[in-house]
Each structure stands twice: as structure tokens, then as C-alpha cells.
Predict the 3D structure of the following.
Amino acid sequence: MKKLLAILLLTVLLLSLAACGAKSADELTVVVKVSGEVVARLPLSENTELTVDGVGGTNHLIVKDGAAWVSSADCANQVCVKTGKIDGKSMLGMITCLPHEVVIYLEKDE
Amino acid sequence: MQSKRTLHLTAAALFTAFALILSYLEAILPLPLPLPGMKLGLANLATLLLLYSLGVGYAAAVALLRILLSGLLFGSPFTLLYSLAGGILAFLGMLLARRLRAPVLVASLVGAALHNVGQIAVACLVTETPRLLAYLPFLLAAALVTGSLVGIAGKLLLKYVPK
């Protein structure tokens, strides 16, 4: 059983490392998805603001100085707001609001 | 015989109340990490204890009741879907652990991990975004901590539960 736990631990660690693969500081695009549909694609280099119409509520997205974040949202858990800023150096580069079915992530340009 | 059945039914009812209180506690506690779907899994303590004492039937009934009731009381249809998927998967995993005579701690860890797997699977389907799977390593790391804590609590409490 100890061996099994050790293997589980190691797998989790390796998976975490694989997920953090460093991204280059190339031009990135902020992709906004609601219920699987891409509703907006914004260049990370341009300062913009967007109120995302999610399912049953909204999330206010700000793109500024090469970073993107959700400044406010009317959902219950506020996970998206607490996620904070994402940029090219972020581990996951992803903001999720499950109650509103909103996913915001960074994508490398072609 | 009849009185034993009454005792077990009463215990199961008390466990449902216990699980609901833990669910409520969890709903009002702020999450330490901004991970979608992360939970402390406190309510799983009730399921775990029942699985190792009164048996599968009571454990399944209480787990299902707890999920439905806490979804109605403290959550929404949205949270219900997630906790149902996570809860069923976690229950099956813990059941297997119990059948394999694994210690309570192991069952708790299996339950915590599978709960996250179930939730993230639903999240991927709902948002049609497979990349949400990238949260899984972080959620599993969190499950290692929460699952251990609940498992240790379960081990300590098990001796006070009627068989």
C-alpha cells in the first residue's frame, strides 16, 4: 500500500510539472468561451475591457499591459476573480467560471 | 433484531444530519485556492464512516441524500450536477477500496481524488473545453491533503460508530 501511495504521489508531481511547461513570450491571444462557443478573441498586447455574457450572469474581463484578469463577476464562488492575472508566464494561463460556463485562456498565435 | 434495525436507521438519520452540517460548513468556508471544483470534502467523512460500519446500503443512501439535500439547500442545479458526478465516482472508488479491505485512509484518498476527476469531467463536458483537464494535477494535489485529513479523522472516529 505504501508503494501504491508513492506511485500516486510521483504521478501527481510529474503531471503537475508537465502542465507547467514554459510558454514563450510570443504574441498571445485571449480566447473567451461561453458554453463551448468562442465569443471573443482579443490580442493580449492591446488594452481592452469586455463584459462577458455567461450563463446566468456576467464576468468583467480586463486586458491590460500584457495580462488578462476578471475584475468582477456576479457568480457565487468568485473563483474567476480570485484566479488573478494570467500572462505568458502563468502556469495554467486559464481563468474559469464554472457557474457561468465561462472559460478564458491564452492561446499562442499561429 | 428489530431494535438493531431501529438503531441502524437512527444512526443513518443522524449521519445524514451530520453530513449536511459538514456540507453547510463547507459552503460558507472560503476556499484556500482558486481552483474550480476544489472542495474540502468534509461531508465525505459521513459516507466513509458508514461504509466502514453499517455497510454499503446505508452509506449509499446517506451519500445520495446528502448530495441532493445540500444541493437544494446550499447550492443550485449547477452545483448539484457536479457534486452528483463527483459523489458517485468517489463512492464507487471507496466501495472498491472497502471491498479490497484497504484502510480508511486509503479509501478517503481514493474518494477525494475521484471526486475531483468526476467534477472536472463534467466541467470539460459543460464548457466543451478539454483543456480544463490541466487543473487536474493541482486538484489531485489538493485531494491528497484534504483526503488525508478526512481519512485520519475517519480512522479516529470509527471506533465510536455502532456496527
Summary: Residues 19 and 89 of chain A are 13 Å apart (CA to CA). Strands of chain A lie at 28-34, 37-43, 48-54, 57-64, 67-73, 94-97, 102-108.
